[in-house]
Amino acid sequence: MSSATVPLESAGHEESDLRQLGQDLGTDQVKGQALPGGTTSDLSLDEILLLHTIGLEPAEVVFGVGAVSITTGAWTWGTGPVTDAHAAFHRAFDEAKETIRHSCRNTKAVGVLGVDVEIEMSYHRCFVVVTGTAVRPIADRDGEHSFKVDYHNRAFLSDLSARDFVVLGTSGWYPLDLVAGVSYVHAPRRAMGTAIGQSTQNVELTNFTETLYQAREAAMEELQSHITTAGGTGLVDAKIFDRPMPFAHHVVEFLTYGTAIKMLAKEHKHPTISLTVPLDDVVRTFEAASLSGEGAGTAEGE
Amino acid sequence: MSTGTAPQPHAFDSGLTIPDFVACLSMGLRPVGLVQGYYCGTVASWANYSAYPEVNYPCCCVDTDPHTPGWVGRVDQLDTSWAEAHGAALERMLKEASDLGAHGVVGVKTEMNHPTNEHSSEVHLYGTAVVVEGAEAPKQPWSTQLAGHKLAKLIEAGFSPASVIYARCTTVLVEGCYMEYYGSGRSGTGNVIKPIVDAHQMARSGALAAVKQIAGQASLYDVRLHVHETERHRTYVTCSLLGSLVWRARPTLPVPAPVSTVSLAS
After folding, report:
1. By the 8 A CB rule, do B94 and B141 touch?
2. Domains in chain B: how many in total?
3. Which of B219, B242, B253, B266 to mutate to test the interface with A (most CBs of A within 10 A)?
4. DSSP-derived secondary structure letter, B49
5. Residue B63 lies in a domain
């Protein structure tokens, strides 16, 4: 059988197949036969093959950058939310998303997968970079696409891996947009007497706990709002970060982002899953202490 | 300059892991030696300052202080130096493979660092040269970061290895009164800080453009993109790309749907 017609078997290679594939590396047949469509992708080969199973292929590494100023004095101690930081984050996040979508349109892709989100909040600026691989449908010989989802010319953005995207798609769901909710809230000052009194006790800092809850509620509410605005019915793989700001410890940040999804099939399709039992047990190793009779041979990892 | 030759061993040596080694043998790829390419050089001391303004930012002084113009540009000399270093090391590694009669080099690893100071460069590439049993020696060996079953899957998916590749682009951001005004919070909240955006966009676009220039119609998969920012009187943003170029040897074949599995191991 010619290697050109060897199907990709999910069960693994037969030895004869491998030998035939290896023989291809000893010929010059592939050189000079390159087909149009050079691409770049930060997806692994496994992920690219997975995308092929649903009729998609990588098109280009794309990215978007947003850097937005925050006014002087925005972080000075006060009460309630830090609205300047909140506004700067969303402006930077939207700028980055708009740029990556623009690059995605230029490659005629339907969306961007595996988006890596980098966020840096400093005293005077908010900096957001999103990087991922734009993916496009593969046309067959008749020019038909097996990937049928219509995104109405609005590229989807998702931080899901290709594996998660394929599993999600086969279950009838599709990603729409990368959405975020964020909140920066001042923790109220403790009275001097309270602070001195608490320094000798094990007590909860209720001002910080309450601020965290306040920040969390605002951010999650905003996230819900953005999911709906994106046309989604839910969100998966939410990332959550909360911390006091390194340069303004009295301000608590609560940030959450993830991929808004929507079910496009009539109903959720549960994939058929095979159970596997790996037979590669841990190897029992020699234990030097056993020589003295104090211990027995143990398995690695026990 | 003598770059040495790979020893002609009676026994082969290789950097392959056991699964990769076994898969390579099953594919009829016989390891013949661990081949390496080195390049040590200097980066011209003026390279960091060889940039010229590509995007200028207007004066926006709101006080009477004398203003300085801000700009963003590419540091071509720095990138050229590293690209040449990588190219030379790759060529030397392939020469060693060619001397051993190898068809290609699998499992290529790349190490790059400054051996002494920031004005020195060292590139070290190494991988396992393989001979395809029963095939004639090629004119130029191919090279790839992949080995074993990953390499088999690459071929099965319709691709063929071409070469490991490295490309980078460095941009410099010279802060002027524009940055002082917009980047320091004096302008208020919500203004896009264009020099920062441009410096990062230009570095990434430049690295991708450099790859495309080298690659032509080949594709670059499994690319590792690394961006870092350094402060040396000015702000430098460097985007590096490292990966394996592949040829698309035939149109994409339909791939059967994968089987979902759940492992019952702990």
Report:
1. yes
2. 1
3. B219
4. G
5. yes
